[in-house]
Amino acid sequence: MEERELESEPEKQEEEPLSMDLSGLNEDALSMMGISKREVADALRTWTQEHGFSSATGAQFLEPMLVRFSEEKYSMDCQLIFADGGNGIQPEDAQTKLTMDYFKEKKLLQIHK
Questions:
Q1: What is the tens place of the pLDDT at every residue in 30-59?
Q2: Is 9 part of any domain?
Q3: Of 51, 63, 72, 111, whose CB count within 10 A is highest?
Q4: What whole-number distance in Å separates Cα of residue 100 and Cα of residue 67?
């Protein structure tokens, strides 16, 4: 399980590209939760590299994005996206689903299968 403390970064003049593609990720929902798209992308990149999914290029979130709210955390599901190697065939792990939990008080994002 990946744990990562979220830090507020000062705004940069030029916006760097995200480290992962986040299809379907609703920025309004993230804003309401107090999480940035960059924080989600960076946490996802770290998790995929540490758990043997280094060929993952991003994640697909359900549209409309489903967020589960509880007293201590917000949870949302996504499915990893992999590069197809140019042949149009996705690897077997293309069905890998993840859950992201954001703990409000700790400002902590956890990713798990």
A1: 998 899 999 999 999 999 999 988 888 999
A2: no
A3: 111
A4: 10
